[in-house]
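Lecture notes, part 5. Sequence design as translation. It can be helpful to think of inverse folding as translation between two languages: the language of shapes and the language of residues. The source text, in structure tokens, appears below.
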């Protein structure tokens, strides 16, 4: 499931604002998941910008070591930062610091963690086990592309 979601979020329309810019991977699955997703993304010509923990696992894809500014970058291209995290809290802290406020997603089979993610993450659209590509007028069933406001107005 995670493979399909990541491929959709990054490769369907990489030049739009709801495309995945950074992939956060839990350390418990990184040894298996990062090589597999690197190979899958490489087949779509995605260049990975992995952190020091993900770099040795990303050899199947073209790589450029991540620099801190990359986490704040809206790639609008077939580029993707990759960071390995040790906890959901670390992932949520990363999103709070570097997220766009537009679309954020978690892939998990743990209902409690999914609920925590939904309650904590502050973005216009927050997804569980779905691609950020759903933040689109056609996908929402509205028939047209529309703007998602990320302003904070009461």
């Amino acid at each position: 499931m995670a493979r399909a979601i990541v491929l959709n979020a990054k490769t369907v329309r990489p030049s739009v604002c709801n495309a995945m810019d950074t992939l956060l991977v839990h350390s418990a699955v990184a040894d298996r998941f990062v090589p597999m997703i690197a190979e899958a993304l490489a087949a779509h010509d995605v260049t990975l910008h992995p952190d020091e923990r993900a770099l040795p696992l990303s050899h199947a894809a073209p790589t450029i070591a991540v620099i801190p500014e990359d986490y704040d970058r809206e790639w609008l291209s077939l580029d993707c930062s990759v960071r390995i995290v040790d906890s959901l809290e670390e992932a949520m802290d990363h999103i709070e610091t570097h997220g766009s406020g537009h679309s954020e997603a978690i892939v998990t089979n743990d209902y409690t963690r999914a609920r925590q993610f939904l309650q904590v993450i502050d973005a216009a659209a927050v997804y569980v086990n779905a691609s950020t590509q759903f933040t689109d007028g056609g996908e929402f069933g509205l028939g047209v592309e529309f703007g998602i406001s990320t302003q904070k107005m009461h």
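The translated text above is only one of many valid answers, since several sequences can fold into similar shapes. The two ends are 36 Å apart (CA to CA).
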